[in-house]
């Protein structure tokens, strides 16, 4: 964090000559390693707002920070209780949905921008562009979108904190975001938006790599590169464990 603050201090004099505000963001960790003992992490997203001539306005602006994971296709299934048994009754496919999405802001998004601006920048869970597969009725698509958002909220993969950004002296900001233990690997993007009077004045991005390490990395790479052999090994291991459990049970009997 000291290195990030030093970078802000060094860059600030070079940016004061611009005629528009500039964001200088940083992150407490550019890389997160997932090991067998990984139980989650806390990321600190912080930075500075550099105003023209170095003078901050008397009316403070607002900040919204979005941490977004890699986009992936997803199939959502809807279960219903039929004849006393829970069964998959319907499904809907989304062509692209972020594997992780968290937004924090200094005030509620609805108080910062109008619906159109929020939709353009995908600020807030209700403004995510999930790209449904098509072919379904609008009512069905809305139902499955709501179901996907609710599911990922409960898994900790989607979140929204309307008071999650702290602004100090009108120029320094910070926000803390939780990374759950089941977070998918990939390249994540942290987007910071400076907002004033309903308009986005400046934006900046930083990338974060979340990857597996150690034995977990070896297994993940093997599963991708050698799918057939990995599947055979998984079946063989299951058969061996089943045989070992049966043998142990017979000995005890």
From TrEMBL:
It comes from the Bacteria. Keywords: Membrane, Transmembrane, Transmembrane helix. InterPro entries: CHP02186-rel_TM (IPR019088). The chain crosses the membrane at residues 228-249. This is Transmembrane protein co-occuring with sulfite exporter TauE/SafE. The lineage of its organism: Bacteria, Pseudomonadati, Pseudomonadota, Alphaproteobacteria, Sphingomonadales.
């Amino acid at each position: 964090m000291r290195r990030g603050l030093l970078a802000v201090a060094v860059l600030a004099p070079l940016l004061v000559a611009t005629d528009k505000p500039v964001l200088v963001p940083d992150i407490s960790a550019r890389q997160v390693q997932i090991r067998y003992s990984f139980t989650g992490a806390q990321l600190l997203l912080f930075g500075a707002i550099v105003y023209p001539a170095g003078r901050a306005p008397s009316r403070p602006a607002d900040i919204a920070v979005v941490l977004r994971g890699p986009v992936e296709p997803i199939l959502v299934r809807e279960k219903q209780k039929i004849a006393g048994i829970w069964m998959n009754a319907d499904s809907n496919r989304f062509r692209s949905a972020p594997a992780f999405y968290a937004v924090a802001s200094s005030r509620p998004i609805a108080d910062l921008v109008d619906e159109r601006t929020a939709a353009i920048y995908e600020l807030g869970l209700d403004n995510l562009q999930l790209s449904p597969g098509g072919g379904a009725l609008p009512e069905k698509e809305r139902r499955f979108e709501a179901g996907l958002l609710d599911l990922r909220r409960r898994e900790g993969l989607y979140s929204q904190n309307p008071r999650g950004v702290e602004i100090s002296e009108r120029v320094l900001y910070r926000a803390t975001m939780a990374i759950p233990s089941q977070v998918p690997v990939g390249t994540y993007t942290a987007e910071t938006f400076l907002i004033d009077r309903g308009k986005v004045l400046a934006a900046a991005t930083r990338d974060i790599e979340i990857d597996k390490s150690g034995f977990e990395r070896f297994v993940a790479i093997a599963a991708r590169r050698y799918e057939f052999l990995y599947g055979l090994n998984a079946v063989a291991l299951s058969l061996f464990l089943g045989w070992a459990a049966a043998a142990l049970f017979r000995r005890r009997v």
